[in-house]
Sequence to fold (161 residues):
Amino acid sequence: MKWPITGPWTFLTVTNAYVPMDCVAEGKVLALDYGTKNIGLAWCDELRVTVQPLPSFARRGRQDLSLRLRSLVEENDIREVVVGIPLNMDGSTGDAVRRVERFMDWLREQLRLPLHGIDERLSTVEASEVWRGMSARQQQKYRTVDSLAAAFILKRYLEEE
Fold:
């Protein structure tokens, strides 16, 4: 990229700064919080400014999950996928990380999209705090706290991007 840039600029609320449009990543990103019972989901808009939790998926087998995720990706023009990596608080890995890594390998084959793992430490804690402050109607909309955790994971990814 050459300076000065004369093309259009946009204001990014994530960074609180104006940046050239050709420096802005585009396309929706889907985030997943892979749990033992549910999979939390969140996505962002095409300009990657706003993050929105989606209703979580109950785990009902890989075939069901594959169909549901592929449908979600195709119908909503998802460009990338982010999966939370459940590192231990000291940064070490354990059984949960290995389970998520196997899931990511499988997901890569199913979706054929860029796939990123991101540290999800404390995302469930943050999400639980927000969850407790929500009305019963809001909680019912998202089904589980997992989708709020996915939103925190996606927010972290977008901030680091």
